[in-house]
Amino acid sequence: MQIAIVLFDRFTALDAVGPYEILSRAPGAETVFVAERTGAVRNDSGSLALVADRTLDDVPAPDLLLVPGGPGQSDQMENENLLGWLRAADATSTWTTSVCTGSLLLAAAGLLDGRRATSHWLALDMLGTYGAEPTGERVVLDGKYVTAAGVSSGIDMGLTLLGRIAGDEHARAVQLLTEYDPRPPYDAGSPEKAPAALVEEFRTGSRFSLR
Q1: Does the residue 200 lie in any domain?
Q2: Sign of CA dihedral 31, 37, 39, 40
Q3: What does the alpha-carbon distance between residue 163 and residue 123 come to, in Å, rounded to a whole number?
Q4: pLDDT for res 209
Q5: How many domains would you assign to the chain?
Q6: What is the C-alpha radius of gyration for the chain, rounded to an integer number of angstroms?
């Protein structure tokens, strides 16, 4: 099974690396990072780079494609080279997936029309403008399309999908070996739980950017 993780300038690192750590442990998986050009691709802070060993054209028909999100996603929404590749790869993929605002790229490619999907909570409303049916769930499965909410939820998506691919026992084993047992020091990981004033600051853009 070939897994293709798409990279673009200013992607969010955990969006790509979280699912990579889980899905790359599927039996027989070949995981490749792809971009329009080979070489280092910088994340949203510019302080970390992942290497794309293959171009989009080098990987025309992955079994599973994964699109991360990040601030750089906005610059890709009309990139027909990327959107066209997503459509072509999706035509033969077994699974088409995204994390965070990566779902907006899938939607811009027309792949989520009429489908339930999720994204980062600040971007959910935008999904509807591209024909998807937005939901605030952490992981959403609609046929072969699997979308995850913001950043850390990509790990949950990876485990959910790994269970479908390799069985629950294998997924549990990977969860145990990666010691994924989150116990966050704060209970503010969603807009429903975080202080209302903090949520409003991000919604209005009055709070400083995290990047």
Answers
A1: no
A2: negative
A3: 27
A4: 57
A5: 1
A6: 16
Answer yes or no: is 146 within a domain: yes
**Contact partners, residue 192, CB within 8 Å, separation at least 6:** none
Residue 193 inside a domain? The answer is: no
Q: What is the CATH number of the domain that holds 99?
A: 3.40.50.880
User: Does residue 148 belong to any structural domain of this protein?
Assistant: yes
DSSP result, 48-85: -EEEE-EETTT-S--SEEEE--SGGGGGGTT-HHHHHH
Cα dihedral 42, 43, 44, 45, rounded to 10, equals -80
**pLDDT tens digits along 98-123:** 999 999 999 999 999 999 999 999 99
Q: How many CA atoms lie within 13 A of 181 on its CB side?
A: 6
Sole residue written with tokens 């145990």: 176
Active site residue 149: no
- Expressed as residue numbers, the domain containing 109 is 2-185
Phi, psi of 76 (to 5 degrees): -100, -5
- Name the active-site residue from 22, 83, 100, 159: 100
* Tokens, residue 30: 């070949």
pTM: 0.95
